[in-house]
From TrEMBL:
PANTHER family: BINDING ROSSMANN FOLD OXIDOREDUCTASE, PUTATIVE (AFU_ORTHOLOGUE AFUA_2G10240)-RELATED (PTHR42840:SF3), NAD(P)-BINDING ROSSMANN-FOLD SUPERFAMILY PROTEIN-RELATED (PTHR42840). Keywords: Oxidoreductase. GO terms for biological process: NADPH regeneration. One of its GO terms (molecular function) is oxidoreductase activity. Residues 17-139 form the Gfo/Idh/MocA-like oxidoreductase N-terminal domain. This is Myo-inositol 2-dehydrogenase. One of its GO terms (cellular component) is cytoplasm.
Length: 371
């Protein structure tokens, strides 16, 4: 017999991370499927959702070996589970993350930590108190190949000194009224959708680099936001809008401008312009479902991605694989709780600016001054 490991003649299967998913709604079930079928170094051993019909739906999709629960605590108390992916409703993110950290489970958390910055602070403290537990927040665009390629261009200096990000997150218009109901518990358009643009800007512009900050606690100088309601008049009841603009001035001298909306008529449209002193990068300038061009009586055109699930299909799988690697290989997580907390503070400041129609400045402790 030939020894597979060169020592005792026995073949050892590579270790797999024992994974569980909390929340089996639209996103949670997608994540669970990615863990089960698209993450070679992980094994989905358990999943849970407090809503029994979601569990029943998952039973038909996930491997039979996956143990299913309606209690999140049952999963967190399971000694076999090493890591959890939390994709429950946003209101439960903070409390479940703290419970998981205390139980010694590594956590991959769907953004945001919370719609309330104050509720997010205990999560930050809990993560800092347990350096042995890895906690990563799932800002999926960071795991998209196009954004990663652009980031490599930035960090290697190929576009010179990066000084401006212009981006947009335009969700497909939904006439059903889903966003009106969703807005009531989402924290608003900046916290729910714009936070992705904020995270990309912080990442690409290297705003937390202490070498470029006179005061390492302060990353943001000021923000300003405006918005209006275009297609969903009922959003006025929750103080939200479906089209908004933002300007963020960072302490390192860089700037981010972005537009976020829920009014796109041509499909899910996300793009990003990255300005350097020597060149400009444009990520996804023309949203395309694939590389096919249609030439017909309407002209020359292409189909667009209908939702973020299609646009970032591969990125969601990459996200889980990279998180698994950080645990099994002892690497640092690419998106920390601190990153998510800083992005949330900016999103809340933008929401305040929009509602008061005034700019929001940040103090020397890095906190937004919300008058």
């Amino acid at each position: 017999m030939t020894a597979a490991n060169g020592t005792n003649g026995y073949h050892h299967e590579p270790r797999k991370l024992k994974f569980a998913v909390l929340g089996l709604g639209r996103m949670g079930l997608r994540h669970a499927s990615n863990v089960a079928y698209l993450t070679p170094r992980a094994e989905l051993v358990a999943a849970a959702d407090a809503y029994a019909p979601s569990v029943e739906k998952a039973e038909a999709v996930l491997p039979r070996s996956t143990r299913l629960f309606t209690s999140y605590d049952d999963v967190l108390n399971d000694a076999e589970v090493e890591a959890v992916l939390i994709a429950t409703e946003t209101a439960s993110h903070a409390s479940l993350t703290i419970k998981a950290i205390k139980a010694g489970k590594h956590v991959l958390l769907e953004k945001p930590i919370s719609i309330d910055v104050e509720a997010a602070r205990p999560v930050l403290k809990a993560a800092q108190a347990r350096p042995d537990v890895k906690v990563m927040v799932g800002f999926v665009r960071r795991f998209d190949e196009s954004y990663q390629y652009a980031y490599d261009q930035v960090t290697t200096g190929k576009i010179g000194k990066t000084y401006l990000i212009k981006s947009a997150s335009n969700d497909t218009y939904d006439p059903t009224g889903f966003f009106v109901q969703y807005s009531k518990a989402s924290g608003g358009i900046f916290v729910d959708a714009g936070i992705h643009d904020i995270d990309i800007a912080r990442w690409m512009l290297d705003v937390d680099n202490p070498k470029s900050l006179p005061n390492v606690k302060k990353q943001v100088t000021s923000v300003y936001a405006s918005g209006n309601i275009v297609r969903h008049p009922a959003l006025a009841e929750s103080g939200d809008v479906d089209s908004a603009l933002a300007i963020i001035n960072f302490e390192n001298g860089t700037t981010c401008n972005f537009h976020v909306s829920r009014t796109s008529m041509h499909g899910h449209d996300i793009y990003c312009e990255i300005y350097g002193t020597e060149a400009k990068l444009h990520v996804n300038p023309l949203p395309s479902l694939n590389k096919v061009k249609i030439l017909d009586g309407y002209g020359v055109r292409n189909e667009t991605t209908p939702s973020f699930l299609e646009r970032f299909k591969e990125a969601f799988a990459n996200e889980v694989n990279i998180f698994t690697d950080t645990i099994l290989d002892g690497k640092a997580v690419p998106v920390s709780v601190e990153d998510a907390f800083q992005a949330s503070q900016i999103a809340v400041a933008l929401t305040h600016s929009f509602r008061t129609q005034r700019p929001v400045f940040f103090d020397d402790e890095g906190q937004p001054i919300l008058e």
